[in-house]
Amino acid sequence: MLSAITALGFVRNESARHLRAGRSRTIGLVVLDIANPFFTDVARGVEEAANAQGLSVVLCNSDGQPAREAAHLEVLTEQRVRGVVLAPTAELSPQIETLRQRGVPVVLLDRRAPGPDQCAVAVDDVLGGRLAADHLLERGHRRIAFIGGPGGLPQLQERYRGVVAAVREGTGSDDALTVVTPETLTVAGGREAAARLLGLPAGLRPTAAVCANDLLAMGVLQEMVRHRVRVPDDLAIVGYDDIDYAAAAAVPLTSVRKPRQELGRRAAELLLDEAAAEGHQHDQPVFEPTLVVRESSMVRRLRPTVAS
């Protein structure tokens, strides 16, 4: 028998063996935008946790589109993955509950859970928004822009809430904040937002900008440099996520740091625990962001004085 197996070049199919047992040795990871280095780092954390238990990761990209997300979730279910780590689109899909009813655990990534009966890993983005805005206020800025993105993502809404609260407390006025909403959360979206800022009358133009992610911040920086606007002298910029490119930008970017790999690692650990343990207890850790100050916001502006 062994000689026949050798002669035929037989290779054991581990995948088929585990499928017959009702499970595979893979987990799914669905992200919003694989082109964003934030999710690349998250994926590394997920993979580290999975590999530690001899498992592999199937990576899917939804591009923020609910229909694509739903299609990926369906395929992953058909492949009998042990579970799914999901960075969801704006609205939580009812398909998530369908998967869980089929015995496929789903852990939400970079999103708070809607209730206590599901694992989720998130960051305190309200605090992150406050950190960014408070830093600029402490540097003397009194006209600040918030550059967001397409509506609906709770993470962006929370960052905006943090910025609004800080600016309101720091200036006593809602008029001190200018909101710009480009079409995408990309470098191109940042360039679009910067062009809008440059189109404002000089007296109304913000002197600082909080960007909802680092890709937007890089786009703003590119456009400002192209128009010979000095960063940070004429416009201070703060990004969000602190991807590796932030420190390598033409003007190194101040950014709100999220623990990217740790987010992915913790989400995968919770997923694998839920998949393996009948006595699993749901957990919803929320990480605190930190501010990393670099050259893009280092200049301190003189506050206007009241004439006597």
From TrEMBL:
Keyword Membrane in annotation: no
Keyword annotations: DNA-binding, Transcription, Transcription regulation
Any Pfam family: Peripla_BP_3
Residues covered by the Transcriptional regulator LacI/GalR-like sensor domain: 133-297
Any one GO molecular function term: transcription cis-regulatory region binding
UniProt xrefs under InterPro entries: LacI/GalR-like_sensor, Peripla_BP_I
Protein name per Swiss-Prot or TrEMBL: LacI family transcriptional regulator
Species of the source: Modestobacter marinus
